[in-house]
TrEMBL record:
Statement: the UniProt record of this protein carries the keyword Metal-binding: no
Gene3D superfamilies xrefs: Bordetella uptake gene, domain 1, Periplasmic binding protein-like II
Protein name, UniProt field: Extra-cytoplasmic solute receptor
Matches recorded under InterPro entries: BUG (IPR005064), Bug_dom1 (IPR042100)
Protein keywords: Receptor
Organism: Natrialba aegyptia DSM 13077
Length: 334
């Protein structure tokens, strides 16, 4: 397998065991690690990165440089990772399945399924938030729907075409299996590059409501300006334990697109030794009491599932979206 070990001198390869021995057998981080966040600052992927950065720095034994590379529904950042050297010093966060449909809609010149999973460090859900001007008047999903269906509101903040928010709003208006129950007659979907900008837009009143992750909307909820109404994930949200899910309110669940895996990935062709070492150090960071304290303070759930789970998260999302022909739904209503 190609990787960082391929870059060493021939002298390092000519051992008694022959040229097939991997030179990175005893690999460990030796320089600053670049941690790509493929979304804006303030979004859920960014929140998780900054929540784990201190324990991860200690676990890696090297500085961690968080680098926000937004745009393209997460594919700008993934493309950056894809083209990076597979030497263990560049990793990326994710919000799977958020990055899947953008690739299905338009070939970015690479396949994210070639990335190497390192682990999953948490999970988020998509929540509906409303500008504080309406607090006391708009308290349920039914109230939001009535604002749109009556024409008093005409817009909602979401991410790019093919994002989970885009898919959920399209299902609720156009796909009979869901629309017959939801009947959500929004007029305009105002698109942003991540939860951070969506939360800011709702806070400023640019749009009356928006859909963002629980992790990414929490800072704006805490500072005032917006409040959460419901989550689209049937099991609810640890961040806002008191709000109902749309399933609790009697609507069909959208769980296949309403949850977000906080995965970490490495470039293609990263050797198994490097993957294993990075995964072990990431797992160590997730067990650090500082990360646990951050979880308790923010409500963001934390855990560790290994490289296979991170790889499967992307593969399974592609399979499900292709089976449901999500691309046709998005193309028809873009």
């Amino acid at each position: 397998m190609a990787g960082a070990g391929a870059a060493v001198s021939l002298a390092g390869c000519l051992t008694e065991d022959g040229p097939g021995v991997e030179a990175d057998e005893n690999w460990e981080p030796s320089e600053t690690i670049r941690y790509i966040v493929p979304y804006d600052e303030g979004g859920g992927t960014d929140v998780y990165a900054r929540g784990i950065v201190e324990p991860l720095t200690d676990a890696m034994g090297q500085d961690i440089q968080i680098d926000n590379v937004p745009g393209g529904g997460g594919l700008n950042g993934f493309g950056d990772l894809y083209g990076s050297q597979p030497d263990g010093h560049t990793i990326s966060g994710s919000a799977v399945p958020l990055e899947v449909t953008p690739q299905l809609l338009e070939d970015p010149g690479f396949d994210q399924r070639d990335l190497n999973g390192l682990g999953i460090i948490g999970r988020s859900t998509w929540c509906l938030i409303v500008n504080e001007e309406y607090e006391g008047e708009v308290e349920t999903f039914d109230d939001v729907k009535e604002k749109h269906n009556s024409g008093e509101w005409d817009s909602i903040g979401i991410q790019e075409p093919g994002s989970p928010q885009d898919i959920m709003t399209l299902l609720a208006k156009h796909e009979p299996e869901y629309a017959d129950e939801y009947d959500w007659q929004w007029e305009n979907r105002v698109q942003y590059t991540g939860t951070g900008p969506i939360a800011e837009a709702v806070t400023s009143g640019e749009v009356p409501c928006g859909i963002g992750t629980d992790a990414g909307t929490r800072p704006n909820v805490d500072s005032g300006g917006v409040y959460p109404i419901c989550t689209f994930f049937s099991e609810g949200t640890d961040v806002y334990p008191d709000i109902p899910s749309v399933t609790d309110e009697g609507y069909p669940n959208m769980d296949f697109v309403a949850g977000v895996n906080r995965g970490l990935y490495a470039p293609p062709d990263t050797s198994e030794n490097i993957i294993d070492e990075l995964a072990n150090r990431i797992e160590e960071a997730t067990q650090d009491e500082r990360y646990e304290e951050w979880s308790e303070e923010t409500g963001n759930p934390i855990f560790f599932e290994g490289p296979d789970a991170a790889t499967a998260a992307i593969d399974d999302a592609f399979e499900e979206f292709e089976d449901l022909d999500i691309v046709s739904l998005v193309d028809e209503h873009s």
